[in-house]
Every structure is written in structure tokens, then in C-alpha cells.
């Protein structure tokens, strides 16, 4: 009896040691996986590592350079010749601002990132039309910032205006601190305003956050205390996962991310954000922003058109299934009687059997924005629509015919 009793503690300790070793192995493996083995650039938005605390000089420079209403473009962007005196991307064909025949608003796909001013689709379209196109797209913008920029730009008297929508906008429109959804840019100062929907159904502007430098460390540890309307709070259901102990638990949370599920199902990672009644309200907010943009157009007696740019995964999903990942958004636009052009089928028809990788800036990796060939293709498609002589009235259904 005594011998049996002596063996029991040893057995328990043995199992305890085995469990500890197994947990330690899995913890180390999870640490290595999260920090070193995941593909860089493709999973960064799912993980969160706080940026270094800015110095006083860096923070004061941010306050001096930032746009007080929109966050960016900064005054530095004007000095670097990425924007001209009117706030537009420089137009090579018509360099002097004024008398624009067309103005553009949106994000980097409107701006034409990763190509030169000469190669940008807005400049090519300007040459085809024989008049100045004012490109007021800004890289990294949400639809909310584009709307606010349009409202503020009273000098824009172009008779026609395009409002660009890119799938990432749905996430940006419920975000206030860009580092939470794209840390690869390594800029800790990209704060932005956003809109929320009041109980009455109207849009309410939540202005650019003000975070004092002395509270910046605390903000990074407890962002929910400073950003009441930020959807992507780290550790929340759709927020990024902090890279800290226990790493095994963080790995489990990563595996259960909706983005991972969508990837396994062959759907775009942002698919949930364009579904009705998603917890973020991204579809409803983006639809309301788009509607308000068109309302502003009508007040200024402009003819306006919504341009829907495809993401690579969005395009692949269409070619594979014949369905549009943004179908629910387009249904909303139909309900609101808003005119739009979905570029996905148009680009697919032009490419025929070719992959979309052929027209992206990083062809080998099949990533990035549209390259020179892609910009020429977009300019060609939009020029064809503008010169068909079709009226803008909804009854003629000129621009969204391709989706029905």
C-alpha cells in the first residue's frame, strides 16, 4: 500500500511535466509562426504590434503637417509634387488648374498609385477627352474622407464628377486609426474622421481624434478609451490580434478569424463587411456616404457617377463564380436609385483569357495597384462610356447595365 501511494505523486508530476513541455513547445512554435512564418504584407492587418512612441519632435511635426479635418494629405504632399496647388494630382496634359471637365474623388485606385503622373489613368483620360481632369483621389482614403474633401472643394466646378469605391473602403469607413488595419505603412499618425449613423438614419460626423502626446502610450494600450467609434479595437472580434503572451491563444484566435474562413472558402477576406447588418455597419455606412456624395453633386448641379474598382480577390471571385462580391452594395445603390459603373465585368471582357495579374503593378506577385497597362485599360473603358453620348438619367440605365 505504501509503495502504491508513493508512486501517485510521481505519476502526477510526470503528466504535469509532459503537459508543461507540450505547452512550452506549442507556445514557442506559435511565437515563431506569428512573428516570422506568416507571409509578410498579407497577414499584417490581422496582427497588431504597437508602433514606437513618437518623440516630441515627431509629434509636433505631425500636428504641423496634418490636415486638421481629413488627417491627410499633409502639407508635405503638396511640397513633394504629388499634389498641385488645386489639391489635384498633377495633370501632365493640362497643368494649369481650372476649367476641369471632370473631377475624381476616392482613394489610391482613383489617384493611380504605383505609376507616374504620365501613366495615371486620369492623365490618360484627360488626353483622350482633350480637357483637364482634376484627380482629387488620395491614397489610403476612406469614402468618408473623399466625401468631406468633395464638400470642402468649392472650387471644383467640373460638370461631371466620379466617386470611386474600392472594397477596402468598407473597412476604412468604420476605422479611425489606420495602423489597426494596415500597419505595413509604419506611420503611427494616420488618424481619420468617420461617420456613424444616428438612430434617425442620418449621418453624424465623428471628427479627427485628438490624442495628446503625453497620453500616446496609454492610447496604444487602451485605445477604446480614446476612440469610442473605432471598430477595429485590438483584441475585439474583428480587430487585430496583439502579438503578446500567450501566443498559443493568439494563434487560435487567428485561425478563427472571419478573414481566414473567407480565404478557405475562396471568398475575399473583406466579404463579411459588405453584408447587411454586419456588426460593423460598414455596408450601411458606406451606402449612406455614397448617397450623401450624390446629394452634394445634385446640389451643385453636377452629373455624377459612382465607379466601383475591383480588388484582385474580388475579380478572381467574379471569374470563378460569375457573382459579384459587392452585390449587396450594388443592390443598395439600386434601391437608392444611384448610377454606377462596375469595372469588374468591363475589365474581364477586355482581358478575355488573360489574368488580372497582367495589369497589376507587381505582376510577378500579382499584387498592388494597376500598372501602366491597367491604367490605360481603365482610361479606355471610362472614355468609351463618356463618349457614347448616353444621358445620365437613370431611365436610360447607361452605366450599370453591365451588372444586370
Concise summary:
Helix content is 40%, strand content 10%.
Residue-averaged pLDDT, rounded? 90
Helix/strand class: alpha/beta
Report, as a whole number of angstroms, the end-to-end distance: 82 Å
**Count of helix runs:** 15
Major sheet size, sense and barrel closure: 5 strands, parallel
The percentage of residues in β strands lies in 5-15%
What are the secondary-structure elements, in order, as H or E? HEHHEHHEHEHEEHEHHHEHHEHEEH
How many beta-strand segments?
11
Largest sheet, order of strands side by side? 3-2-4-8-9
Quaternary class: single chain
Q: Helix amount, in percent?
A: 40-55%
Uncertain regions spanning at least 5 consecutive residues: 390-404
Using the CA coordinates, give the radius of gyration: 24 Å
Anisotropy-based shape: globular
What does this protein look like?
The protein has 404 residues and is an alpha/beta fold. The chain is built from 15 helices and eleven strands. The protein has a five-stranded parallel beta sheet with strand order 3-2-4-8-9, with helices on both faces. Strands 1-7 form a two-stranded parallel sheet. It has a two-stranded antiparallel ribbon with strand order 5-6. A hairpin with a 5-residue loop joins strand 5 and strand 6. The radius of gyration is 24 Å and the shape is globular.
Q: What is the topological layout?
A:
Layout: H1 2-37, E1 47-48, H2 56-65, H3 75-79, E2 102-105, H4 108-111, H5 121-129, E3 133-135, H6 143-152, E4 160-165, H7 169-172, E5 194-197, E6 203-206, H8 216-221, E7 241-242, H9 247-255, H10 258-264, H11 282-299, E8 303-308, H12 312-321, H13 327-335, E9 340-342, H14 343-351, E10 360-362, E11 367-370, H15 372-387
Parallel strand pairs: 1-7, 2-3, 2-4, 4-8, 8-9
Antiparallel strand pairs: 5-6, 10-11
Helix pairs in contact: 1-9, 5-15, 6-11, 11-13
Amino acid at each position: 500500500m505504501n509503495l502504491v501511494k508513493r508512486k501517485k505523486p510521481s505519476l502526477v508530476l510526470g503528466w504535469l511535466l509532459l503537459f508543461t513541455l507540450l505547452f512550452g513547445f506549442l507556445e514557442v512554435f506559435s511565437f515563431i509562426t506569428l512573428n516570422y512564418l506568416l507571409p509578410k504584407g498579407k497577414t499584417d492587418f490581422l496582427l497588431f504590434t504597437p508602433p514606437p512612441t513618437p518623440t516630441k519632435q515627431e509629434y509636433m511635426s505631425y500636428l504641423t503637417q496634418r490636415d486638421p479635418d481629413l488627417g491627410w494629405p499633409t502639407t508635405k504632399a503638396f511640397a513633394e509634387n504629388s499634389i498641385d496647388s488645386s489639391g489635384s494630382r498633377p495633370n501632365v496634359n493640362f497643368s494649369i488648374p481650372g476649367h476641369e471637365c471632370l473631377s475624381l474623388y476616392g482613394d489610391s485606385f482613383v489617384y493611380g498609385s504605383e505609376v507616374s503622373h504620365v501613366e495615371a489613368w486620369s492623365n490618360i483620360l484627360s488626353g483622350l477627352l482633350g480637357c483637364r481632369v482634376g484627380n482629387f483621389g488620395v491614397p489610403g482614403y476612406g469614402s468618408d474622407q473623399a466625401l468631406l474633401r468633395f464638400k470642402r472643394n468649392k472650387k471644383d466646378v467640373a460638370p461631371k464628377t466620379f466617386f470611386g469605391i474600392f472594397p477596402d473602403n468598407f473597412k476604412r469607413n468604420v476605422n479611425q486609426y489606420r495602423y489597426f488595419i494596415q500597419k505595413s505603412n509604419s506611420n503611427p499618425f494616420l488618424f481619420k474622421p468617420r461617420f456613424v449613423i444616428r438612430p434617425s438614419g442620418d449621418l453624424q460626423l465623428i471628427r479627427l481624434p485628438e490624442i495628446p502626446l503625453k497620453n500616446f502610450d496609454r492610447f496604444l494600450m487602451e485605445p477604446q478609451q480614446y476612440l469610442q467609434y473605432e471598430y477595429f479595437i485590438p483584441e475585439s472580434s474583428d480587430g487585430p490580434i496583439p502579438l503578446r503572451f500567450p501566443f498559443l491563444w493568439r494563434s487560435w484566435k487567428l485561425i478563427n478569424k472571419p478573414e481566414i474562413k473567407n480565404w478557405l472558402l475562396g471568398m475575399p477576406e473583406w466579404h463579411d463587411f459588405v453584408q447587411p447588418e454586419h456588426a460593423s455597419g460598414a455596408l450601411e455606412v458606406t451606402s449612406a456616404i455614397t448617397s450623401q456624395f450624390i446629394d452634394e453633386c445634385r446640389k451643385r448641379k453636377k452629373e455624377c457617377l459612382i465607379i466601383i474598382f475591383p480588388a484582385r480577390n474580388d475579380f478572381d471571385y467574379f471569374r470563378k463564380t460569375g457573382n459579384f462580391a459587392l452585390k449587396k452594395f450594388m443592390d443598395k445603390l439600386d434601391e437608392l436609385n444611384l448610377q454606377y459603373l462596375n469595372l469588374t465585368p468591363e475589365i474581364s471582357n477586355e482581358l478575355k483569357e488573360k489574368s488580372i495579374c497582367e495589369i497589376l503593378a507587381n505582376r510577378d506577385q500579382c499584387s498592388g495597384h494597376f500598372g501602366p497597362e491597367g491604367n490605360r485599360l481603365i482610361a479606355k473603358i471610362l472614355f468609351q462610356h463618356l463618349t457614347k453620348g448616353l444621358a445620365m438619367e437613370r431611365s436610360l440605365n447607361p452605366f450599370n447595365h453591365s451588372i444586370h
